[in-house]
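Suppose you are handed a protein chain with no further information: no name, no annotation, nothing but its sequence. What can you learn? This example shows the usual starting point.
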Amino acid sequence: MGHLISCKYGCILAIGTDTFRNGKVEFRPGPVYSCACSGGFGIFDEINMARNEALAVLHSALDFRRVIDVPGYERITLADDTRFIATMNYNYAGTRELNEALASRFVVIRMPVLTLEDLQRLLREQFPDLSSKYNKQFGLLFMDIQKNVKVEN
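A reasonable first move is to predict its three-dimensional structure. Written in structure tokens, the prediction is:
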């Protein structure tokens, strides 16, 4: 089981939020809370777009304590099989470096930029019936999109 947690729009809501139900305020669990309780993977997408104060509440979940304090409600202990993964793109608009305290809680795997040749090889391996003409067109289209995204960001 997995939970995708988008950090683009403020990942503090990922723990949960207050909601008004049946005439009273109740806690509505978010994907981080659900992952912590049920186990599985939580994926923080674009973690370096989130504000540091939003991420600070995760420090205790990502270190030896393995707990999350839900302000105003409770402290939960993570299920034994709960794991978190974070993705990020360096040097894009709206992103920042992760602070050292948070970065030290992850193993960093740097992925190389995909070249046209590598993409075409992957396409040939995954779609052996794809003609070389369309393989090349898909590859060039991907490279154009990638170039334009870098220019806009």
